[in-house]
Amino acid sequence: MVHRCPPLVLVALAIATPANAEVREYLYVENTSGGDVTVISIPQHEVVGTIPATIVGGHPDDVVASPDGRMLFINRLEGQDVVALDARTEQVLFTVPLGGVPHHMTISRDGRFLYVPMFNGSVLKVIDLTRREVVREIDIGLGAHATRLSPDGRRLYVGHIVHQAVMIIDLARNEVVQTINFDRGVRPFAISPDETTLYVQTSNMSGFHVVDIATGRIMQTVNMPTAPQTMPTSFPHTVDHGLALTRDGRRLLAAGALSGRIAIFSVPDMRVIADIPVGREPNWITLSDDERFAYVSNRVDDTISVISMDTFTEIKRLPAGDLPQRMTTARVDRLTEAQQDGAASTARSRGNVVDRH
């Protein structure tokens, strides 16, 4: 069942919306405990708005953008659904119920399908964003956590905490075609541009594995330059959480969650280029579109670190909401807060309730 925003609301918003908003790049940060999304301008690196909990809510855990920048998709742990927002007006377009706890999502290259692993279920749910409903379920077992699309968009990689594996799904056949096993739960991972190499963080480990995808063999285990002072004692035993690889595959950024640092490695020699102190418990890393900047969510002190990829230093630290975690960037003709409020006011005057506060 799909829950849609009433058509009259969308019409009223469209009528009231200015047509001259400039397309800019923004960073969207979901704040899990706060239930809202912080919006940061790039490259100005200023907080320019918040999508409030009255719009989002439900304990969000991830945010992804459509390739054309027109929509944002946010999963909600409490709501057990995905909510789709108009990125321009930041109003709800529709929600898709999932009937389970969704984890880290991936969108197809053409923007038609959203792939959502169900952590407390045994399937990957496929949402057709044109039909706005779940159209397929792929059996992958309990405890799927992270997903990434292959560079050519033909395969989906799924990391498992419970099954301690990375499963590779052929998206044309909608079935698992390869499983790479580990001895611990799989956390964030990255795929090389030529799809020959996998970089994998696991539970209870400070560092990451370098894996040959064709054979599934671990070729190298790389330690973080700064080890944590303590190790976790409870599930999911998070030590490091967050990997980002530059498009050319030559720089790998890794988040040391317990050490409070971001390490940057050269690839393939795995030489440490920088070991950068950031905020408390860095959780996710996202690069700007031009890869001049890297963004790190520090989920314990509720901040975002901005790292220059030219100097490999933290150049700014910005406030976020309560428990910032996953992030995405998008180029959007976003309305200002005043324009959004004006559009909402016009919609209300036409008898349609739109509440951003």
Helix content: under 10%
Number of distinct beta strands: 29
Structural class of the secondary elements? Answer: mainly beta
Q: Could you give the order of strands across the largest sheet?
A: 1-8-7-6-5
CATH topology: Methylamine Dehydrogenase, Chain H
Number of domains: 1
Biggest sheet layout: 5 strands, antiparallel
What general form does the structure show?
globular
Proportion in β-strands: over 45%
Q: How many H/I helical runs? A: 2
Give a description of the structure.
The structure is a single chain. By secondary structure, the chain is mainly beta. It has a single domain (22-225, 236-334), classed as Methylamine Dehydrogenase, Chain H. Helices cover 6% and strands 48% of the residues. It is built from 2 helices and 29 strands. The strands form 7 sheets. The chain has a 5-stranded antiparallel β-sheet, with no helix packed on it. Strands 4-3-2-29 form a 4-stranded antiparallel β-sheet, with no helix packed on it. β13 and β14 (155-160) form a beta hairpin. α1 (7-16) crosses α2. It is globular and about 65 Å long. It starts with a strand and ends in an 8-residue tail after the last helix. The model is unreliable at 6-16 (pLDDT under 50).
